[in-house]
Design brief:
Blueprint: E1 5-7, E2 12-14, E3 32-34, E4 37-38, E5 40-41, E6 48-52, H1 62-77, E7 86-88, H2 102-105, E8 115-119, H3 123-129, E9 135-145, E10 150-159, H4 174-185, H5 195-199, H6 240-249, H7 255-258, E11 260-267, E12 279-284, E13 287-296, E14 313-319, E15 325-330, E16 385-386, E17 393-394, E18 402-413, E19 416-424, E20 428-430, H8 442-447, E21 451-456, E22 466-471, E23 475-485, E24 489-499, E25 515-523, E26 528-533, E27 556-557, E28 563-568, E29 579-583, E30 614-615, E31 622-623, E32 629-635, E33 640-645, E34 653-658, E35 664-668, E36 681-685, E37 690-698, E38 712-713, E39 716-721, E40 724-725, E41 733-737, E42 743-745, E43 748-750, E44 752-756, E45 760-762, H9 774-779, E46 783-788, E47 804-810, E48 813-819, E49 832-837, E50 842-846, E51 854-859, E52 878-879, E53 884-888, E54 904-908
Parallel strand pairs: 5-10, 6-7, 6-8, 8-10, 11-16, 27-29, 52-54
Antiparallel strand pairs: 1-9, 2-9, 3-4, 9-10, 11-14, 12-13, 12-15, 17-22, 18-19, 19-20, 20-21, 21-26, 22-23, 23-24, 24-25, 25-29, 26-28, 30-39, 31-38, 32-37, 33-36, 33-39, 34-35, 34-37, 40-47, 41-44, 42-43, 44-45, 45-46, 46-51, 47-48, 48-49, 49-50, 50-54, 51-53
Helix pairs in contact: 1-4
Length: 910
């Protein structure tokens, strides 16, 4: 059985009082063994075990905490149409607290225990989520037997600290928290029926229609498994919706035969695509608030693609036989689900409308419904809802909102085919997902969904102007006309047109993977982004900006570029009156395949032997299910090797170091910087000369056989260093003597240099300055700044090493390397080196750098005059005898960021 055992990541639920903003993580059915097959506890749920720990829970004594736990499980056992029961299988052998909880949070193997952890004073939750996080508990199945489909063990953590202090959560309401969490423990989902109407002002029917009377108070009418807790909401008692799914998982023998069900598909406006992630609600017109059941389309699929089994399908169970139900689709407004909610919906919310059901709103009135009457034990099927198509003309866009437009032709973009696009109120078109993002940074453009940015900015179509579209059999054209920036500033006019692919007559064949045009009228915005990005699964995240107005060809040829874009400010907004015809790339091909095994039978099939330093930033490299990649390199004993999938891609990678025989020596999953983040890193000193290999895969492929869950592009960096690791701490400095030469810098020969942890070298004195300004660069000590920023070589609290600083002096030269050093309180990464030679020459060499702020350059300091900034990425001749600098801005409120990744900047000798 062990080889079929799966360890589940914990799911957490944030449950707060009404009015507090919080999102919860859960799903439903929480976990699927296979499409249509949810996991269940063994024996039909008879005798589900739990093991309480020995402590108390906030003000509750141990005995009171156990009694409340028993009562919470009993709320599920009391459901007449289900057979599940629960057994206290004995207490844990210890009182679990912040010093000993990890074996229960991250067990290495099943231990026969299903722990209910009482975090008596909240110290565990403070460590996991931070003080005052609002997280009251989390729970889930923990170990699963994939061969049998059974839940083997569960786990739950309860935050007693939330019940203490002046802002304590009401003790009487904590029973609702436990009932909710133990629903997850038994593989129940979040549900959405009345909770949105109670807490978020949603209507009782398809928005904007309050079709059914609202109760004077929703207390006692809110489903237990709604993602948010309402104080005095009565959620300790499961509602009709909770009962229906629980009874399906653990049914009393007559459940199916004595209740009704309604099933169907949710279909996109093109009449063919099955849409997953849409909430479907059935309300009994005679009792619409309390006799109501929901399901999320595709919640039994496990795969959102339209062709997957169960995709777009829903089943509403536990219905009253003979009752008349109105069935409608409803957008989920808040909460976390493993069946990811479709937001926005592909059309307006609407009722099932019988024979009138179609994609034409002039025939299919969204506010009209045809009732459905289920019979006991006889499923009603074929209750399909087709979303109405958005008609050409004005688009009803809200601030930060989006509307999905379905095409009459296959849309090609970056070599992929889409059937629809999203028009986002902030001035862009995206593919595969909408975007409410209004901050338009380069990193967000590159790492977000595939996007055409006409004028991606914080626009506000609610405040004025018109957004409209027109459509033909070969194009969709979207017009933003006079749309102001938020809240109501200026007016911006531009057009984005997506066109069907064509055969270019001058070449005689298709040259591209998609085509679109951008046309600009008057643009008043003083900031924003324009161009395109193939999205986070295709870009490296390091693609540089381009001056779009500098293109003088008939087309912007993006044939090999996953992104061509400009992030502009008031100083360089020159888009007025411009026209761009853009060809996007064909599908990219991994440059190193085949390289998916270390045990090739022929030498030519061995993974590539690469020379260090090595990076895939200029080569398309992708990994995913069925694929793991390997690269060989040579190293000598004593070499310090840094292996990292550097930030830029959101892919959840894993890296491994192998010896020449293919034995795994080291592995890292989420090492990143400081031990957190989705990317991976190994810093290792080589013990023996030889040939080694790096493996790249995605979680949870611990065997590097291609068993990862995700697919996408990655950037691998492998760099080798020699020299001494300097004991540089956060904001600290180390003086490095020069034994083979003196370094001439602005008229003085220096016999030592201070290496400062914040990414710069100074002479005569160290510098702990972590907030660089141009004034400080000019007035401070003589300084060479490859990347002066608030870097954090060590963790400022724990002192743990987060990156390395290495110095190596050779006759007449000094090299100082900053290796995978993050910014303060971030998980970014920075690789850069500075080279000094005896004649006064300076060179900066960059690997991956985080797109953030900082100052780069050199200055004698001491009050030197300001010569003004220099664009270092475009400079061709720089002198070490001059003051030269560039100030990079990458904060939340500013655009830009360091654009020197994988570049070199040289300053000639004086």
């Amino acid at each position: 059985m062990t080889r079929h055992m799966l360890r589940l990541p914990l799911v957490s639920t944030v449950v707060l009082a009404l009015g507090a903003a919080a999102i919860a993580d859960a799903s439903g059915p929480l976990l699927l063994r296979a499409p249509g097959q949810p996991f269940r506890w063994a024996h039909g749920g008879i005798g589900i075990p739990f093991n309480p720990d020995q402590g108390g829970l906030g003000p509750l004594t141990h005995a009171q905490a156990v009694a409340q736990t028993t009562a919470a499980f009993q709320a599920w056992a009391d459901i007449p149409s289900a057979v599940a029961t629960h057994t206290n299988a004995g207490e844990l052998s210890l009182d679990v607290n912040e010093t000993n909880f990890m074996p229960f949070l991250e067990p290495t193997a099943p231990d026969g225990l299903s722990a209910i952890i009482y975090d008596e004073n909240g110290a565990i939750f403070d460590l996991l989520f931070g003080p005052d996080s609002g997280v009251l508990g989390f729970a889930s199945p923990e170990w699963l037997n994939n061969a049998t489909g059974e839940i083997v063990e569960g786990v739950a953590f309860m935050n007693g600290g939330a019940l203490l202090g002046p802002n304590a959560f009401p003790v009487a309401e904590f029973l609702s928290v436990q009932v909710h969490e133990f629903g997850h423990y038994q593989n129940l989902a979040h549900t959405v029926v009345n909770g949105q109407a109670a807490g978020f002002g949603d209507t009782t029917g398809p928005t904007p229609n309050d079709t059914f009377p609202r109760p004077a108070s929703f207390a006692g009418h809110i489903e237990t498994m709604y993602p948010f807790l309402f104080v005095n909401g009565g959620q300790a008692t499961p509602a009709k919706d909770d009962i229906a799914m629980f009874s399906f998982l653990y049914p009393e023998p007559s459940f199916a035969a004595s209740t009704g069900s309604i099933a169907g598909r949710i279909i996109a406006p093109n009449n063919t695509t099955r849409v997953t992630g849409v909430n479907v609600i059935a309300r009994n017109v005679a009792d619409p608030i309390d006799d109501a059941v929901s399901a999320i389309s595709g919640d039994f699929a496990g795969d959102p693609s339209s062709s997957a089994p169960f995709a777009g399908e829903y089943t509403l169970r536990g219905l009253t036989p003979g009752a008349q139900y109105a069935v409608f689709v409803d957008e989920i407004l808040a909460g976390g689900f493993s069946t990811e909610p479709r937001t926005p919906l592909p059309g307006p919310e609407e009722f099932y409308n019988g024979a009138s059901e179609s994609n034409d709103g002039s025939i299919d009135d969204p506010a009209a419904f045809t009732t459905v009457m289920p019979a006991a034990g006889v499923p009603v099927t074929g209750i399909n809802i087709v979303f109405n198509r958005v008609p050409p003309g004005p688009i009803p866009l809200t601030d930060d909102g989006a509307v999905e437009i379905f095409a009459d032709f296959p849309i090609r973009f970056c070599g992929k085919t889409y059937e629809s696009l999203f028009v986002n109120g902030n001035g862009s078109l995206t593919f595969g997902a909408a975007s409410a993002d209004s901050s338009e940074t380069a990193a967000e453009l590159l790492q977000g969904p595939p996007r055409i940015a006409g004028l991606w900015d914080d626009l506000n179509p609610e405040a004025g102007g018109v957004v409209s579209f027109e459509q033909t059999s070969h194009s969709i054209t979207v017009h933003f006309t006079g749309v102001p920036e938020y809240p109501d500033v200026g007016a911006n006019t531009f057009t984005m047109a997506v066109q069907r692919g064509f055969l270019d007559g001058s070449f005689g064949f298709a040259l591209h993977g998609g085509r679109f045009t951008l046309d600009y009228g008057a643009v008043s915005a003083t900031d924003g982004a324009a161009g395109y990005s193939c999205g986070g699964k295709e870009t490296t995240g390091f693609e540089p900006e381009t001056d779009l107005s500098a293109f003088r060809l008939p087309f912007i040829l993006g044939l090999d570029k996953p992104a061509v874009y400009e992030v502009f400010t008031a100083a360089d907004n020159d888009l007025d009156g411009e026209h761009f015809d853009v060809l996007t790339p064909k599908p990219f091909v991994d440059a190193f395949e085949p390289n998916d095994t270390l045990t090739a039978d022929k030498p030519k099939h061995q993974p590539p032997l690469v020379k260090l330093p090595f990076s895939t930033v200029d080569h398309y490299t992708t990994v995913g299910p069925g694929d793991a990649d390997f690269y060989r390199f040579k190293a000598k004993a004593g070499d310090i090797v840094a292996i990292e999938t550097v930030p830029g891609s959101p892919l959840d990678t894993m890296v491994g170091l192998f010896d020449e025989s293919g034995h795994l020596l080291l592995l890292d999953d989420d090492g990143g910087v400081g031990g957190v983040g989705s990317l991976s890193r190994l810093l290792v000193q080589i013990g023996v000369d030889g040939t080694y290999a790096v493996g790249v895969t995605t979680f949870p492929d611990f065997t590097f056989t291609g068993a990862g869950n995700e697919a996408g592009r990655y950037v691998l960096s492998v760099r080798s260093y020699t020299g001494a690791i300097l004991p540089v701490t956060d904001d600290g400095s180390v003086e490095v003597p020069l034994s083979t030469f003196s370094f001439p810098f602005h008229g003085t020969s220096w016999s030592s240099v201070w290496v400062n942890g914040n990414g710069n070298l100074t002479f005569g004195t160290g510098s702990d300055d972590f907030s660089p300004t141009v004034a400080e660069m000019l007035a401070g000590p003589p300084r060479i700044a490859p990347l002066w920023d608030d870097l954090s070589v060590t963790n400022f609290v724990t002192g743990a090493q987060q990156g390395l600083v290495i110095a190596e002096e050779k006759p007449g030269t000094l090299d100082v390397h900053f290796v995978s050093v993050p910014e303060f309180l971030t998980t970014g990464t920075n690789y850069f080196s500075v080279h000094l030679d005896r004649k006064g020459g300076i060179q900066f060499d960059y690997g991956a750098t985080d797109r953030s702020n900082g100052i780069v350059g050199s200055s004698p300091g001491g009050g030197v005059a300001d010569p003004g900034p220099t664009d270092l990425s475009r400079a061709r001749s720089l002198s070490a005898a001059s003051t030269v600098y560039e100030r990079f801005l990458g904060s939340f409120f500013a655009f830009g960021g360091v654009d020197l990744s994988f570049d070199t900047v040289s300053f000639g000798k004086p």
